[in-house]
Amino acid sequence: MKKNEARKYYRSLRNQFSNNDISILSQEIFENLQKIDFSNDSNFHVFLPIKKNNEINTYTIIDWLFSLNKNIILPLVIGDDMINCKVERNFKTQLNSYQIPEPISFTEIDSKEIDVILIPMFVSDKKGNRVGYGGGYYDKFLARCKPNAKKIGLSYFRPIDCIEDTYFGDFPLDFCINPEGIESF
Hints:
By secondary structure, this protein is α/β, with parallel strands linked by helices. The protein contains 4 helices and 12 strands; from the N terminus they run H-H-E-H-E-E-E-E-E-E-E-E-H-E-E-E.
């Protein structure tokens, strides 16, 4: 399957989810994520869910990470790129013009300081290649991160066999967490 086909198909499936479906599936993803050992990791890049796109609710994950005394770094889109925003507990957000929640108060940090990256996506294949929105934001960001940072995709769906049109600028995942379990690549 090609990226555009997968993007269209899985976006359509995701758009059919009710708020209750999202809540249940997000909780299952969170429970599976908790099975990974993060004891040696401190800095976690976590995306905030775009409600209109029925994205996975990551606020439970953020609360859990704060309870473990981990640092939370949120993305902030600036032009055609993202910066890394370290936030404190009880951080506040505002919606930008695209209805994406963004932190209001933060400290910018370097990408090389991030240990774990939770990545939004539609689906991955069995080699860890992912299908996102197609803007290239995460590929640019991942290119600046340290090579051993854990790249973890969060998806409502199990990996498909193959994404046919990957290219050298794509960064494969280390793990994909879905409601059914953890896929390791």
